Amino acid sequence: MLSCVVLASVAPRQVVLGHRESFHRLVRLIRSQLHSEHPQIVSKTLQSLSSLVARRDINGPFISSLGRDVFNVIRPLVTGDDVVAKVKDITEDQLPVIQDGFKTLEVLVTVADEKRKFSLVSLLTQSLCRLLCASSADEWRLLSQPARRIHEFALQRLNAVAPSWPVEFKQVLASHPVLKKQLESALLFQSSRQVQAQQVAKAKAVAESKNAHLSQQPTIKLTMDFNAFGKAAS
Hints:
It is built from 13 helices and no strands. By secondary structure, it is mainly α. The longest helix has 40 residues, at 177-216. The chain has helices at residues 2-10, 13-17, 20-34, 39-53, 59-78, 83-88, 94-111, 114-129, 137-141, 145-164, 166-175, 177-216, 227-233. The protein has one domain. The model has no long low-confidence stretch (mean pLDDT 87). Helix 7 packs parallel to helix 10 and helix 8 (114-129) crosses helix 11 (166-175).
């Protein structure tokens, strides 16, 4: 599959889209890999698909055929009433799949025309906000390492989405006050963690500097010639 996608990503447009049956075979192949039970295969497929989607002269048919399949990769995690519970249960194997799914979705937003851009930014923003699961130290301590990484990944991508599509981003948050509050709380907690980490690092540096200074101090040796006392006594 990977070799087919690599070929399609560099071949002339007529070669990729000129033969209808070959195109549909490639689409079916990619779709079957996106639904694989093996996370590594799904992750590699998403990475390969991103290269096709990024190519503007051929991406239209691929987006129309596979765009829904891309979102279906992350849909189970970001929909429903138990999203936080599902994020907390995420495994190391699932992490790359979720991350690559969102990265591919970002590429879709980048190449989308103006008519579709807002709906895709909205989908991306809402989905990322729903991955946020810590706004306090107590909540953070209860998270597994994979859950912490997906939380930080969501914040990182939201910080990238905001300046890339500022108008659409603000409109989405204005329409979803609960998600806006969730994002603000997560950002505030992130800021407090960064300040705390800086303070710890500064205190550690000061302590190390003091220890280094003390170790460099010359050692004072006190000596006395007691022979003089003996002579005085005699």
